[in-house]
Amino acid sequence: MRTTLISLAAVSLLQLAAAQPHGRHIALHGKRDVVEYQTVTAAGPKVLVYVDENGNPTATSTVGGPEQTQVQPPTGNPAVPVEQPPAPTNPAPYVPAPDSSSGEDSSPPVGSSGGSSGKGITYSPYNGDHSCKNKGQVEADLAKINGYSILRLYGIDCSQLETVVPAAQAKGMKVMAGVFNHATVETDINMMIETVKLKLGNDWSSFDAVAIGNEWVNGRKTDAATVVASLNLARPLLRAAGFQGPVVAPDTVPAIKQNPSICQNSDFVAANCHAFFDGGKAANEAGAFVHKQYEDLRQLCGKDRVVITETGWPSQGERNGAAQPGSDEQKTAIESIETAFKGEESDFILFTAFNDMWKQNFPGSFDAEQYWGIL
């Protein structure tokens, strides 16, 4: 659910322009009923298209200018781009560690997840004023994150690999790293490789997976063909640098269902899924809803492993149909998700560790955008 419409004119970090959407994009929840047609600056207008839970457009709105207007969209436009034949090509192989019963060495390759045994949680190293958290702040945050095996990041800005990876490693956690900007994948992957080489001792052992983007198709940043091309660009660069683990492209469940090449070309299925945005599910139904989508994707994509790379519930905001935000409701939803995934704890990542006060609400966020923090 990477998010934001905030301008970062006040932040003068070089990496910011090439990494996660820290203040420059809206990125979407699993079932959010709004998609973004274009990347914009804070000074310009933004056109949002509202869709129902089946992906059918219902209305559009223009925000960010002196006035907000709504018009009915043309009939028949899909919520997300739908790919056309031919079928996608297979990705370069990711080979998990061999089963110990075979008598072969069962140690995972460097940078391989090796089958993570515990649940994950997402984390973004930003202050409420949009500035980057420093090493001490990151370490203080991670001291509060307990009981998790995976920490998901979204970008390479704010020197976050340099600050977060060692702090996570010290707690026995691995990192799901990521690059965010579809236009600079090669540059960002090379920057990640250089950071690991120069700042982390060329040690990929704390990297569980690398995510290429986040909800690019659902957010209309680009199409499925570009996602596949980005995966096939990033994977050999990472392999040559020593990372042999999974390379994936997280998107929402509707986007993946309409564009299965996204999951077919990922090393495991990576899907963001939030029952809150369905609008028809109460907090205690969140687990059953998310697990149903998880099973659907397993069947659709033909992959042994599916990971829900974002799922959660907001503690504040406006009601969305049957979905009521609130602290008690958040606790209920998280317990429901954990119960539904009992025995499959490595297959979901909770969203998110802390409230993200650097984010900004927008139509379709139900005034909840800042309040998904669990801790």
Question: How is this structure best described in words?
Answer:
This protein is of the alpha/beta class. It is built from eight helices and 13 strands. A nine-stranded parallel beta sheet has the order 9-8-7-6-5-13-12-11-10. Strand 2 and strand 3 form a beta hairpin. Helix 3 packs parallel to helix 4 and helix 7 packs across helix 8. It is globular, with a radius of gyration of 19 Å. The protein starts with 33 loop residues before the first strand and ends in a 25-residue tail after the last strand.
Separation, N- and C-terminal Cα atoms: 17 Å
Derived from helix and strand composition plus strand pairing, the structural class reads alpha/beta
Strand content bin: 5-15%
Q: What general form does the structure show?
A: globular
Average pLDDT value?
Answer: 79
Order of helices and strands: EEEEEHEHEHEHEEHHEHEHE
List the helices and strands and how they pair.
Layout: E1 34-36, E2 46-51, E3 57-63, E4 69-71, E5 120-122, H1 135-143, E6 150-152, H2 160-170, E7 174-179, H3 185-199, E8 207-212, H4 224-241, E9 247-248, E10 251-252, H5 253-258, H6 261-264, E11 269-272, H7 286-301, E12 306-311, H8 327-340, E13 348-350
Parallel strand pairs: 5-6, 5-13, 6-7, 7-8, 8-9, 10-11, 11-12, 12-13
Antiparallel strand pairs: 1-2, 2-3, 3-4
Helix pairs in contact: 1-2, 3-4, 7-8
